[in-house]
User: Fold these one by one.
Assistant:
Number 1:
Amino acid sequence: MNLRTTRRQVDAEIAELREMAKRNSHVNVTVPISTIENKDPDEMILVQGIWVATPWDGMRMSLIMVDDSTNSQYLMCETVYEVDCGIHRHEGHVEEIQMLEGRITDAMHNVVLNAGNRIKYPAGEPHRPVVAAGSKFIVIFRKVG
């Protein structure tokens, strides 16, 4: 295999990824930010690839993709400084968190997630994540019922 062949293969793979991104592109996707505390909205509207500030100061999120076959939404989240999300729940949606960097402490369930850890909350399960400064994680919301 020579350099030209390798370059053509890479270019073909990039083109395929771009096509896949176009097919999976969603605009104005509703994300379930349901809460027990009254200060936060019930939902947010996200556009794929656009970073948006969350109701919690110091955190932003971006819609990565939507998988219609599983009714799942994949979000990338990151914090600038420590963020206490308060007690909240997501009615009708399972929430899964996959830690990439940093730490989340679920103050309600006394669980600590570090890079490489994950947790899944059943639909409607109250939880209280406290996210360390500089954390990055993926959230997957899957609609059930």
Number 2:
Amino acid sequence: MDRLDVAALTGTLCSAEFDETVVCEHRDPPTGPVAGAPSHGRPLYRRRVVGTFSQAARLVALARQLPRIPRRQRLHRTRLLAHFARSFLVRAPSIPDAAGGLTAMNDIPILLIYAPSLQSSDGTTVQLRRLLAEFPTPVWHIHGYSPPAFADLPGNCASLPILLEPRYPFRKGAGFVRRAWRRWWVPRFVCSRLAQATRVHRAPPPQVAYVVVYDELHAVFARAVLGAAGVDRYVLHMMDLFHARFDARAQPNLAKLIAGASGVFAVSSRLADEIAPAARQPVEVLPLVTGFVRPSATSSVRTAPYLMMSGALYAGDPHRLDFLRNALLPAWLELVKEIPGIEWLYSGADAGSLPPPLRAVIKNCGLLDQATWCATLAGARCTVFPIIHHDGDHYRYSVPSRLVDSLAAGVPVIAPSCPNTATGDFLDAFSNRGVIVATTPEEVQVQLKRLFCDDDFHRRQVIAALSAAEGFSLKPTQRQLFEAIQRVEA
């Protein structure tokens, strides 16, 4: 804990007016000096005093009482005073620069509450990693312990893992154990991690949270973390809904989390309409963002044309692979007879779960790093979305990011029809604009042959895909999220 200059703090609070910006000295600033500050000696940093006059009077009175209390209590009071002062004096809110970029609001971190690690490989985590990369404020991520990292953590993010629940060898009563563990033990771990992060990063505790949930169990975890961290202002982002339907009686924690949010985002308009009755704020749709970066080399490392498939296959449910097994595989085998040498590539972690007939024709590339994945995707003749989403299944409210990435790469997508789902809405919106919907083996065979053999048709689809992908760039979506958090902090 840094030594606190009580006299200087008292004088600063007594002389400063609460609605005006004051200039004070800081021994170890977290960021660079404010423009216009003198460069010689100890730099000056612009601060804004926030709070109420009663809080200021309490802080000044506590500071003046320190010399008159016993030494043992004085040390404890000094630490409390330093903690209060750091949360009391914060950096002034910033204004977006002339170039339209995002400038740091303050040096107080944002608390990200999301159960998986940001280094995981699932689609939701990939989207969050893209949104939070180069975010203008530090992000402290409270999450559970995770398997070995798939990707690097964004530079502005700090990982604070906690033990969500113990491993248990039984199934009956597992839900009760999870809820009890997250309600009673998670707060202890959260307090410990936040205290450790405050010491290590020499920063005040978070005052605003960014909460990402799917279902009731994630809502229990999020509310426990919010209570333990003492944060009552947060932005909620619903990336999916893992329930048959939203019911405030059946999911009370999720309903309370939605109702208490200062801002609510949903991944699709279907999900926004589903949770809108429980929200006190208008539910906004936060579009997906693409992480595709066009490689410098324009030609692919492979000479033969190939079909690209990537992402999760959800092979635990055998019906998920019906499109691959019954429609795409027969069409592909017929196309190979006409165009020898073409390849079908897969990038992801689920190749081992494919049935033998598919495993025999698909070449597994495994999990690729970002640069290799972008180069492989850019060289593909077309991609395939292999999963049929049904209106009663999980993921019916979400849109896979691999669809957006394919459009951003200018690679046409062949996908099955997914009626009454958010994915189906996306496919219908971009049908014949880089997305080709084909469900039966005959339709798939015709469209594959056109994409591989008809250069004019392929060129038109590439142009349409690039045009459609303009609505999924990172900066506008990141600004939408940043401005929502900025309104909550104001």
Number 3:
Amino acid sequence: MPSLKESQHFVPSAGIPRISGSTPFREVYQILEGARKGAFLLLRNDRPVSYVKAYPLAEKVITDAKGDVEKLRLRSGQPIQEVVTELSGQLPEVPVSAQPVDVMADESALRQRLATAFTVEELGQPVGWYLNQETVYEAQTERTIFICSRDHRNTDPDNGTCWKCPLPIVRTEKEKVP
């Protein structure tokens, strides 16, 4: 049986940003841009509690703001844990399995389960993550772009306005990471 480390759905431990729940929303997207990733592990008490796809979260926040700069400015400074909690049920959630899987686990059995991020262990030590569904894994290869009313592209929501002009952020796009 092949090792999960050989699967395209395996991501080494350092390959998914780990973000504290107290991190402000805008900083999350700065971290993701720097890492060139489209998803992150949300931490509570330094433990991963969920795998969050960045694009659907940003899209929901921007859509809910409806071009209101003040609303987006407030949301941008809000801790990511609060944002995720408030929007829970409105976004596709990907839980982190409470039980790690061995590097030699049966991949086909893991693929049969609901969308989940599994800690992969080798000799009892964590070596990475197995993202069992294509839609979970593909979020790693996307980045979120924030677009203002003049179609300027921004890598994060800043304070609700564009970096290049004073207009509000009004929509998002996703872009494949090379």
Number 4:
Amino acid sequence: MNKEIGLRLLRRNLAEPHKFEWAGPSFALRASPKRQLLQLILCQPVVRLLAQHATPVAFAAIVVATPAMAGPYPFTKELDCGTITISLDGEHIIVFDFKTKKTEKCTCKEFGWIQHVSNADVDSYRYDNGVLTSGSQRQGAKSDPSKKNQPTTPPSGTKPEDWDDNPWYGGTTDKTKPKDFDAHPTPQIHISDKPDHPLTKFKTQLVCVAGGEVFLTWEWGPLTKGNESLDKVGGKSVAPP
């Protein structure tokens, strides 16, 4: 590490601790979460620079000014058609909600949530419902969360109750829904999940019922044990769209 460059960066960061940035030959730091700060101060050349040139007060100012690590929830996204909110109900329940609004820019009339689930070590997704019977278990059809338009309507001549590729999420909190809702799910704009299966990962999508356009894909997991705190597992918006 070039000592002069290191000292110049260090002095600037001490002067503006809220903009703590570092770029070195072995790593790059461009934000200020505590875990990145920890990576920085554990680097031996930086420790030496801090020990030689930073006063305890200045070093403390950096730590205090560094915001605490925060999980991704609640997450909110505004669309022309409404507001997406993803939040946690306690540590183990994730809630996906969409509140619609009527605007001239919104051409979609009906929405629903689709959830894809896969083993953690592969990208082999299925719809998260119980439409298909596999031995004594029920599962969804194979799915492809990378498609910008999901298959949201059954083929011509196929009744919804006979549609093996039904993509809609199979869980519901609506007590008015039939007991076999998982086998014949319909579009919902409010869903929740309490995962309990180990080594799984998820992609949850808000889509337009007509045409299957994807408005959001939320990737979360993988869960190792199946019962981890979802805030620690994390999540993020990915393509599509």
